[in-house]
């Protein structure tokens, strides 16, 4: 990492901490212990956040403690900063109104709002921590497909995405996800990237439980941008070693009830920046697929692969990457880069489902963007209601054939 970048990051961090201190500490003056505590915490936060970010990449086991401390602090400071900014916006508006009305903003109101900021930031962080650390809930999504063959009505795909195995997400967390997914007995399991945040040597023991995933027609994985940050080639080899089918701009054909289904996967949208051979290409991934396949499923880490996927003639794209924003207010910034933040959307004839992710990145914190294990079910186009539930196909209707 360039020294100039580190210097700029530290300078910006210092300014942000000074801003929060300048705006909040005076409101705590009536409570000396709280005032001193806030000053000490802000000083510690300024040190811990960069240390925590650096410790995320360290290979030593004892670095995990530093990473935990830094990432928890980052989550709390993020809420503190946002709430401080919102308070100042409200105060400016209130002051403007008061000036027009030839009155003043009550000093007590200003002081109490200053006290409320750290209290609310702490509450949001505690709630966000609980949401992030509990096992992701199962989310059911029905996707209506026109002219869907009867044998595929009720075809189920379990999707997990953005686990981000790293310093705060370890084997026990992954084991719980695997158990929950296997209990769904899906026809296919899709892993849509960003499985890891670190190297194979450091994290392979913690990703190993993914090898226990089982579905009748297989488990398929595509790379996310974080695989490229962490050594994508080594991770592709490791994922294949534990039994996962990694799709790199390629597809397989499975048969369900005698009907062909194309399952394609592309490298991450940014993969070509790390390796020209990993340039993401939805069209190439579909090359040679049977023309009579009604369902053409694409696994693509980033939703912004959707326009190329629609051009190529896919039926459904499963993506992740966005985390649904993970915690307020970052959900509002996702649309700057991605066409969708979360949920089921459409690009012309292509359905796109964007998962909020099954783990989390950075701070162990999720607020207003719950993690999910998604069970996607294909239904006849006439069943337009996405929440409709119909009978699953009988075991006799499930036929596996080698691609």
TrEMBL record:
The keyword Mitochondrion does not apply. Keywords: Hydrolase, Membrane, Metal-binding, Transmembrane, Transmembrane helix. One of its GO terms (biological process) is lipid A biosynthetic process. The chain crosses the membrane at residues 5-24, 36-55, 67-100, 112-130. Residues 155-324 form the Calcineurin-like phosphoesterase domain. Pfam families: Metallophos. Gene3D superfamilies: 3.60.21.10. Coiled coil: none annotated. This is Metallophosphoesterase. It comes from Pararobbsia silviterrae.
